[in-house]
Amino acid sequence: MLHSPDRRFSAWITIEGVETQEYSVETSEDGKTVTCWIASELGKKFVVHWTNLEYDDAIKGVIKMDGNDCGATVTLAPSAKRVLPRTVRKEGVDQSAMNFKPFQFSSLASTDDDSLLTGPSVYEHLGVINLEIIPVLVTAENTAPGGLNQSLSKLTVHERSKKAVTQQITLANSEHRAKPMSFSTSKIAGPAFVRFQFKYRPIDVLRANGIAPALKRKTPPPREPTPEEDDPDEEEARVLRERLKKLDEKRALKNKKPQVKREGVKSEEDVIDLTQSNKRVKLEEKKPRPFVSGEVIDLT
């Protein structure tokens, strides 16, 4: 909720019944303008509210959306025969005493067609909801509604003219009131008391520009401690067991020698067998042959 510097007036916005959070609230040096940022929600309806806390005469709240006039609502002074509530709301553009078209956030179309490229003043108020509180003198009550049927056409702006604005305000389909709305005519009785400006952007844009706080990540619930963690001695013993297990595995890996078989190299057993075989051959060569009868021996 925004407040005027003298605390006589306040204003706020609700989106489908929920009051919006204001970010980066600022007041001008002359105290006449109070500005903030709000998060707009595409396709949702919203209502502008304001309250007269102390001023005892009639006031009028003038509403402008993206710089477009959307009518006003008069609150009568307490001295009047019929006193309106000090807290009023503007939920859309009046069509009649029984019907109105609600305000809603809509997407903003853009183009690179240079024929739509205009000066900066044309879209100066794009992305701004403006409420001005003005003192008035009521000249007539229960008058017939006049100057109504305003419309907020969907805009198509040049890419270089929209200044990072991605949404605009349009009117939703007509709705029916439960009770007829009364109208009054008035004339301005002095300069505006205060101007409330709500600059709207999607929440992601506000966060990206540091206007709204970053989204907090959900932290997992704390883990329940194990029985070992509850007992310091048991936890120390567990750590020692883990270290001992790793040392045993390391020592076993170190003591294990790889079995390497190389082709062309005989084993020790093969060499021994070959030696014994050679000895048998030599002994057989030295053993005298038996004499056979009738055999002729060459003695030369």
From TrEMBL:
<feature type="region of interest" description="Disordered">
    <location>
        <begin position="212"/>
        <end position="272"/>
    </location>
</feature>
<dbReference type="InterPro" id="IPR057678">
    <property type="entry name" value="DUF7918"/>
</dbReference>
<feature type="compositionally biased region" description="Basic and acidic residues">
    <location>
        <begin position="260"/>
        <end position="269"/>
    </location>
</feature>
<protein>
    <recommendedName>
        <fullName>DUF7918 domain-containing protein</fullName>
    </recommendedName>
</protein>
<dbReference type="Pfam" id="PF25534">
    <property type="entry name" value="DUF7918"/>
</dbReference>
<feature type="compositionally biased region" description="Basic and acidic residues">
    <location>
        <begin position="237"/>
        <end position="252"/>
    </location>
</feature>
<feature type="compositionally biased region" description="Acidic residues">
    <location>
        <begin position="227"/>
        <end position="236"/>
    </location>
</feature>
<feature type="domain" description="DUF7918">
    <location>
        <begin position="13"/>
        <end position="213"/>
    </location>
</feature>
